[in-house]
Every structure is written in structure tokens, then in C-alpha cells.
Specification:
Elements: H1 56-80, H2 87-100, H3 106-117, H4 119-128, H5 132-138, H6 148-166, H7 170-176, H8 184-198, H9 202-226, E1 232-234, H10 239-248, E2 253-255, H11 258-267, H12 269-293, H13 296-299, H14 303-329, H15 331-345, H16 363-384, H17 389-417, H18 422-439, H19 444-478, H20 482-510, H21 522-536, H22 542-558, H23 562-570, H24 573-590, H25 596-628, H26 638-646, H27 648-652, H28 654-680
Antiparallel strand pairs: 1-2
Length: about 700
């Protein structure tokens, strides 16, 4: 193994095995392909020597990122139903800051910052997909109570279980399957982190991200606070569109937010198109059919109500079946990984001393902590959710079995496509758990609370397992110490769970989940729709669920990404349309030059800008939520008066304001699209 020449450059070149070829990003040539029979992969940081990783700076910055992005992701997830992956923006910020501060050992510290900070997105996904359903159902059943401790402990314990359940599988997914999984999210994040070591590009990337964040943040803040242009452009804003909706139940709408446009760009055209196709299938086929040929009561309903009360149930059934398909496809992985973990526990994995780069938390310690976590979960269920001992015990068994089985499914999904099907798996968990609870006499509002809190634990565990495999793969490529990543992940989980609990309660107070300006929370609404009839003795739409499940089987047989299509079937159309717009921009940018190197560079810059739009839009969305506290429609002075004076309805009148904001929304959205496309093509240092 060759050593670096320290005097050759201000930043030491990456370590690699002698004779290894390096990619332009500084990673070994064999980083992304399967290894030969006797071939070894050597990471960027020396695999044996101690590296500068855990420092007060890296831990402090990681926790700060966890707090900021937990708040931002919670807002965006509840507003549009999509939780952005925080790893890339956090990595870019970390690279820019360590470069500006001239930190020694920046690469190792940046991995820790990213690993701790990335707890935000995964904890948020676990919490907002389930727990807001309690607030949604509380409007109908006032005796349902929701406390901060329920949200906090559900998120915390679920996150801890996800970490502990996945650690025994780390070596299998990260090392043994090297080159067999693409790890799209981990690949992008790794290339961001290594960029500072190769081209000193961190400062430029950070600047681009900051500019995009300000543009996206101010854009979304102005819309949310002042309403100078429409947040949703829709055909129903016009008389001809209202007539069309009334006669045929056809509606076309699109959210004009910056954050959702950025999400579509990162998702890409393929999956954005599949999601949009699912939405069109429901909104332009199922809804018109039900609205035209349904019973008299159904035909009198507007399209959005038909979607909410009937058509969306087909998507729910499809999502549940997608989870079953995922388990079946991943059964071999589960059994193989369990065998590997068992051998490690018995000390039969290797007689040689493990190098720093492949050192996990001791398996004996993992077993002890798993037992401790399981006991904590049981105590939480018994004292905080279910007061009957044997019912709490059954709920506890359901959680542990399902969380463990789906852990590898979530990790496998992330490793292959970078998308965690956690909502579909959680829906199936809720259906199974609710059926069991009703069978043991736990129903009504107490059953609703039990199901949703338990679903929150499972959902967060699966979300954490899927996100954690990305962190550990990044560490594997770069040469971080797994034990340090695993240890400090617990602290990031604690901070993120506390932040998410507070943000959910604040957003509920400001926006709520019912009414014109309510939070969309599509996943939580889906969970509530599943749980309510099961627990309250209502008519459960089993036929619609079955149709969705059969449809998912057909999609899988045809090779269509089942989960993505079914997600589109129950997320509102106005939130899926901009996903397609962003995906289309991504495609045009990636095909904007005949030179592949130029196109790839432009695509990467576009991803950076899109990440900024997402982060800025979400962060300023939290600021907009706080601004709501000061709003008063009757105010004429002060900050509230200033806001009212700036709204179009104040200086144009209500009728003219609607027409104005719709046109302005189209214009501003077009300008945002032009910015994303043209700025992505501004790549310096490359010729056309």
C-alpha cells in the first residue's frame, strides 16, 4: 500500500492500493463495480491508520444540521407529501464550511457531519407518515389525545430499533455485495464529499447551493405569506374549467412551489413519469368513471371528494401489495444476512483482527442494546399507549417481527433505486396490526391511538434502516470507521426525534389538517383512511383495496415500478404534476450536449441547484408557518397589517385577485423553470 506525498499539494491525495486507477472524483476505479476473485477495494482514507472523524466541530455541526433539516423536512413532508433526502445538501454545506474554515482531516469529519445530520430526513419520514393521522382523526373523535411524548418516543424508539436491527447486516450490504448494488443516493453524496479532496470545489458548490436556497426559499415564502401569485394553478379557477369539472369530473392542476420542482428534478424523468402516470390514471380515468357511472350521491360530488373518499383507496391497496412483493423478492437477502449476523455473534466470521475501516460495534453489545431497546418499547406501549398487559405484549411482538423483517427490504430498496417504500410497508403493518388488535378486543379510539403510535415506531425503524445503509456505504467508500458512525447515529436520532415532535405540534396549531389551507399530509391521510373503518366498525373498502392489490400485481408482472405508480394514485394531482415538470427538466439538461462529460457536469450542477430549491423552500416554509402566528385578517397596522396590505385581494379585490394570481403563478413558475434549466447549463471549465 503506497503512502501519500504530503508535500505535493495542500490537500493530501486519496490513499489507494498500489497500482489502483482513480476516477476523476478521487475514488478508486473499482469503487462501483464488482471485484475480481483476489481483488481488494481500498478506501480513500487509510483503512488502518486512525483518522480525524469525531471532533467537537463534527458532532456539533452534525447536530445543528439534524435540527435544521428535521424542521425543514417535516414542513415539506406534511405540505406536499415528499420528504427530501437531506444527505446531499448537508454534505455540500459540510464541504463548504470545512473548506472555508481550513479544517484538518475534513473528509473524515464531513462524513460524521453528514451521518448525524441525515438522521433528520429518516426520522421525519417515519413520524409524518403516521402520527399526524391522530390529529386528522381527532377532528372526528375529540377523545383522541396526542402528546409530545408520544410523538417523541415513537420516533426515538423506532429510530433506535432501525439502527440496531441493521448493524448486523452492514457487512452483507456494504462489503459483501460491493459493486452489485448501485447505491444512487450514496454515490451522489460520496462524490460531493470527495470533491473537496480532488478539485477544491467545495466553496463553489456551497455558493451555488446558497444562491439556489435563497431563490427557492424567498419564492416559496412570498407565495405562502403574501400570495402574490397562485400556489396552485388549476383549471377550476376559470368558469370553463368549473364546467368541465362538473360535467366530466376532469381537473388539471399544478403546484408552482420551488421545493416540489426541485424534488422532481432529483427524482428524474423515469420515476416522475411513473408517479404522474399513477396520478393521471386515478384523476383522469377512475374519478371520471366513478363520477359519471357511480350512484346518484357519488355523481353529485366534486372530483377532489371522489378522489379522497373512493379513488385513492385503490392506491392504498396497491401500496400495501407493493410491500408484500418487496418482502418476497428480498427473502433471500434476509436469510443470508441473518446467517452472517449469527456467525459474527458466535465469533466465527474471521480469526483475523478487524481493521479500523471494518470495525462495527461489538455484536455482544448490539445484542444487549437490542434487548434494552425492546424492553423500552414494551414499557412505552404498556405505560404510554395500551394499559392492558397482554394486549401490550401482542402489540410489542407485532412491532418487533414486522420491523425486523422489513428492515432488509427497506435497505435493499435504497441500495437498488434510492427510494424507500416505507409508506407502503407501514400501510400493510397498520392493516395487519389493526386486524389483530380488533381480534383481541382493542378497538375504538383507543385502538386508533395504539395502531398509529405503533405504526410510527415501525415506520421510523424502516425509514432509519433504509437511510442508514446509505451512510454506511458512504463511509465504506471513503474509509470512515463504521463503529463511530453507528455510535453517533444514536445522538442524531435523539435530537431529530425531539425536533420533529415539536415541529409537528407547531404546524398542527398553525395550519391544521382540515380546511382550505390545511397541511396535505397525504401519507398520514392514507393511514387515517385505513385505520378509521377498521377500528370504528365502519364499512372498510375492501373491494377497492383488492382492486389496488390486483392492479399492483399486474404492474409488477409488466415490470412497472409498482410502488411509484401506486404512490401517484393517492397523492393529489397538483403535487405530482410538478414532479413531472422537474423530471423533464432533468432529462433535457442531461441531454443538452453531445459531449457526455459536459452533459454529466450540467446534470450534477442541476442536482445541486435542485437541492438548494428543496432546502430553501422547506426552510423558508417553516418561517412562513411561524409568520402565520402574526397574521390577522382584520389588522391594518403592524406586521400583520403590512402582510394584509401586500396581498392581491387587498388592492385588486377578491374576484380580480384570483385571475391575477393564476396568471402570475404561471409566469413566475415559467421563470423558475428557466432559472433551473439555464443555470444548470452554466458549467465552467468545459467546452461545448
Amino acid at each position: 500500500m503506497s503512502k501519500s506525498k504530503k508535500a505535493a499539494a495542500p490537500v493530501p491525495p486519496p490513499q489507494a492500493a498500489e497500482g489502483d486507477l482513480m476516477t476523476p472524483t478521487g475514488l478508486p476505479e473499482n469503487a462501483f463495480r464488482e471485484l475480481g476473485e483476489h481483488e481488494e477495494f481500498t478506501p480513500v482514507l487509510h483503512p488502518v491508520r486512525e483518522q480525524k472523524e469525531v471532533t467537537p466541530y463534527s458532532v456539533g455541526m452534525g447536530l445543528l444540521m439534524a435540527i435544521i433539516f428535521s424542521a425543514a423536512a417535516a414542513y415539506l413532508g406534511l405540505k406536499v407529501g415528499q420528504v427530501f433526502e437531506a444527505a446531499i445538501p448537508i454534505s455540500i454545506i459540510a464541504v463548504g464550511l470545512t473548506g472555508a474554515l481550513k479544517k484538518d482531516g475534513a473528509l473524515g469529519q464531513n462524513v460524521i457531519i453528514q451521518s448525524i445530520g441525515a438522521c433528520s430526513g429518516v426520522i421525519v419520514a417515519g413520524a409524518i407518515f403516521t402520527l399526524p393521522a391522530l390529529y386528522i382523526l381527532q377532528a372526528k373523535y375529540p377523545d383522541i389525545t396526542v402528546s409530545f411524548m408520544q410523538i417523541f418516543l415513537s420516533s426515538l424508539l423506532g429510530g433506535v430499533l432501525g439502527i440496531l436491527f441493521f448493524i448486523p447486516f452492514r457487512r452483507y450490504f456494504v462489503k459483501d455485495m460491493h459493486g452489485k448494488y448501485p447505491f444512487p443516493e450514496a454515490t451522489a453524496t460520496t462524490q460531493v464529499l470527495i470533491s473537496a479532496n480532488t478539485a477544491n470545489a467545495g466553496g463553489g458548490q456551497a455558493k451555488t447551493l446558497i444562491i439556489a436556497s435563497l431563490i427557492g426559499g424567498l419564492y416559496d415564502y412570498i407565495v405562502a405569506t403574501f400570495g402574490l401569485w397562485a400556489n396552485n394553478v388549476t383549471t377550476t379557477a376559470y368558469a370553463w374549467g368549473q364546467t368541465l369539472a362538473e360535467k366530466t369530473k376532469l381537473v388539471l392542476s399544478c403546484n408552482t412551489g420551488a421545493a416540489v420542482l426541485g424534488l422532481g428534478y432529483i427524482v428524474g424523468l423515469k420515476y416522475a413519469f411513473v408517479i404522474f402516470a399513477g396520478s393521471i390514471f386515478v384523476w383522469w380515468i377512475i374519478v371520471p368513471l366513478l363520477g359519471t357511472y357511480g350512484n346518484e350521491a357519488m355523481t353529485a360530488l366534486p372530483p377532489d371528494v371522489i378522489f379522497k373518499e373512493y379513488a385513492r383507496m385503490i392506491g392504498i391497496g396497491g401500496i400495501a401489495m407493493a410491500g408484500v412483493i418487496g418482502i418476497i423478492k428480498s427473502w433471500g437477502i434476509i436469510t443470508a444476512a441473518v446467517g452472517l449476523a449469527g456467525r459474527e455473534l458466535k465469533g466465527k466470521s474471521s480469526a483475523a483482527k478487524t481493521v479500523r475501516w471494518q470495525t462495527d460495534i461489538s455484536m455482544k453489545h448490539i445484542v444487549f442494546f437490542i434487548i434494552l431497546a425492546c424492553v423500552s418499547v414494551f414499557l412505552f406501549f404498556y405505560f404510554g399507549v395500551i394499559s392492558t398487559l397482554w394486549q401490550a405484549a401482542i402489540a410489542w411482538l407485532v412491532v418487533l417481527i414486522i420491523a425486523f423483517l422489513f428492515t432488509t427490504v427497506a435497505a435493499n430498496a435504497i441500495a437498488i433505486v434510492g427510494s424507500n417504500p416505507v409508506s407502503g410497508m407501514t400501510l400493510m403493518t397498520l392493516i395487519i396490526a389493526s386486524a389483530i388488535f380488533v381480534g383481541i378486543g382493542l378497538s375504538g379510539t383507543s385502538g386508533i391511538v395504539a395502531s398509529m403510535v405503533i405504526g410510527g415506531v415501525v415506520c421510523t425503524a424502516l425509514s432509519m434502516a433504509g437511510g442508514f445503509v446509505t451512510d454506511l456505504k458512504i463511509g465504506y467508500w471513503l474509509g470512515s470507521t463504521p463503529r463511530k458512525q453507528e455510535t453517533w447515529k444514536f445522538l442524531g436520532t435523539l435530537v431529530s426525534a425531539a425536533t420533529v415532535g415539536g415541529v409537528i405540534m407547531v404546524l398542527n396549531q398553525v395550519y391544521g389538517f382540515e380546511g382550505e389551507n390545511a397541511l396535505v399530509a397525504p401519507q398520514a391521510n392514507a393511514m387515517a383512511a385505513v385505520i378509521e373503518p377498521l377500528m370504528m366498525g365502519g364499512d372498510t373498502p375492501w373491494i377497492l383495496y383488492m382492486v389496488g392489490a390486483i392492479f399492483a400485481l399486474i404492474l409488477n408482472w409488466l415490470g412497472v415500478p409498482t410502488l411509484a405508480f401506486c404512490l401517484g394514485m393517492f397523492i393529489p394531482l397538483q403535487l405530482n404534476a410538478p414532479m413531472l415538470v422537474g423530471g423533464a427538466i432533468s432529462w433535457f439538461v442531461s441531454h443538452s450536449s453531445k459531449d457526455k462529460e459536459v452533459s454529466d457536469a450540467r446534470q450534477d450542477r442541476g442536482t445541486l441547484i435542485a437541492s438548494g430549491l428543496i432546502a430553501g423552500g422547506a426552510l423558508f416554509g417553516v418561517f412562513a408557518a411561524l409568520t402565520e402566528f402574526f397574521k390577522n385578517p382584520e389588522a391594518t397596522t403592524g406586521f400583520a397589517g403590512f402582510i394584509n396590505a401586500c396581498t392581491p385581494s387587498h388592492f385588486l379585490g377578491a374576484e380580480s385577485a384570483q385571475s391575477f394570481t393564476q396568471i402570475a403563478g404561471l409566469v413566475m413558475y415559467a421563470l423558475l423553470i428557466i432559472y433551473l434549466y439555464t443555470d444548470a447549463k452554466r458549467v465552467k471549465g468545459l467546452k461545448k
